[in-house]
Design brief:
The complex is a heterodimer of chains A (234) and B (124). In chain A, 32% of the residues lie in helices and 27% in strands. Chain A is of the alpha/beta class. Chain A has a single domain, classed as Rossmann fold (3-Layer(aba) Sandwich). Chain A has a six-stranded mixed beta sheet with strand order 6-7-8-3-9-10, sandwiched between helices. Chain A has a four-stranded antiparallel beta sheet with strand order 2-1-4-5, covered by helices on one side. In chain A, α3 packs antiparallel against α4. Chain A starts with a strand and ends in a 7-residue tail after the last helix. Chain B is mainly alpha-helical. In chain B, β1 and β2 form a beta hairpin. Chains A and B meet through α5, α6 and α7 of A and α2 and α3 of B.
């Protein structure tokens, strides 16, 4: 279980997360929702151990996250993080050097599903290809937790379908997958649990199918009722 | 398959498979995809896919044999009973819609007759 207990994070005068308590259980795909600036990325960076909370604690199977947990928790950030001179194949090798749980066969299979040529250079990739490469290399780690920040942003429908398939394929009873996005519709059928964060505060965490049955609302409807006419912070 | 995100997705996939089973597009006794393959085929969460089979099993439309997979029931009487209950449900929904438009069941029947005649003349 991945758990944040009363996590608070401040950047100067800005409170990015305000006493967020959340438990994520294996066997689920979570949609972490909120407009830009609501704290989703900060939560993921804290869960990976890339940031230290001002208050509260982030626990992986009961122990604080850090060097140990990073071997089991894979994080895909929104920023591109590959050298432009690398080929896709070299990106795989680079990952192999960094992560013990990296599986080259899985990477090859994912590249095939995404229709990415391993010989292509990073500098020649379109934004859709780059998005697919980031997801492929992250899911090539035999991790227990995958935190994918904005996996569906800025890409065409076909690339989105390929990414969705790869995510569904990677899910398992002992795995946790967290997808952050403000593209709510993309995640309706893939996620089974939704976490709504608003201005650093956890608003709601709910089982999606149960919510649909109880309220006849979609995740997008719930999103609209929580965030309403709120302006996006860009 | 396009989903209505306002109703449970398991119910929509179950509805689709139920129709395939009672109309014979999925044969009695036929092996169904694994839960994981069903999830990939419909691009849905694997837990949602598992729920689809739980639901259809509860209706007696399919059963899971340990280690072998999930199969459409071979009980043709059960499939026929469900086919007829789905047809009855459709008829009731139809009458209720026409009732809202102010048509009696008698008017509705006459309209069905006319529509059927037009269809016959267009597709003899």
């Amino acid at each position: 279980m991945l758990e944040s207990r009363e996590i608070t994070m401040k950047f100067g005068p800005v409170t990015a997360l305000d006493h967020v308590s959340l438990k994520l259980e294996p066997g689920h795909i979570y949609a972490m929702l909120g407009p830009n600036g609501s704290g989703k990325t900060t939560w993921m960076k804290l869960a990976t151990g890339l940031l230290k909370p001002a208050e509260g604690e982030m626990l992986w199977n009961g122990a604080p996250v850090g060097v140990e947990s990073r071997r089991e928790i894979a994080y895909m950030s929104t920023e591109p993080y590959f050298y432009s001179w690398m080929s896709i194949r070299q990106v795989g090798k680079y990952y192999q050097d960094f992560f013990r749980d990296y599986d080259p066969a899985r990477f090859d299979a994912l590249l095939a599903r995404m229709e990415l040529d391993p010989a292509l250079k990073v500098k020649n990739l379109s934004s859709g290809m780059m998005a697919k490469l980031k997801v492929a290399v992250t899911l090539s780690r035999r991790a227990r937790v995958w935190l994918l920040d904005e996996p569906f942003n800025g890409i065409d429908l076909i690339a989105r379908d390929a990414i969705a398939q790869s995510i569904i394929e990677s899910a398992g009873e002992d795995r946790i997958i967290v997808l952050s996005s403000h593209l709510v519709e993309e995640m309706e059928a893939i996620a089974d649990w939704a976490v709504f964060i608003r201005k650093g505060v956890l608003v709601e965490s709910c089982d999606l199918e149960e919510m649909r049955q109880r309220t006849s609302q979609s995740m997008a409807d719930r999103y609209r009722s929580i965030y309403g006419a709120e302006k996006e912070v860009i | 398959m396009e989903f209505d995100p306002m109703t449970p997705i398991w119910a929509q996939v179950a509805g689709h498979l139920r129709l395939e089973m009672v109309t014979g597009r999925l044969q009695p006794g036929e092996k169904l995809p694994s839960g994981r393959d069903l999830a990939l085929q419909f691009a849905i969460n694997p837990n949602t896919a598992a729920r689809v089979y739980q639901e259809l099993e509860a209706e007696g439309l399919c059963s899971t044999r340990r280690g072998l997979g999930t199969f459409v029931t071979a009980d043709r009487a059960r499939l026929e009973a469900i086919r007829l209950s789905l047809a009855r449900e459709a008829a009731e929904q139809f009458l209720s819609r026409l009732d809202k438009l102010g048509l009696s069941p008698g008017d509705a029947l006459r309209m069905v007759g006319e529509a059927a005649a037009t269809e016959d003349s267009q597709h003899p």
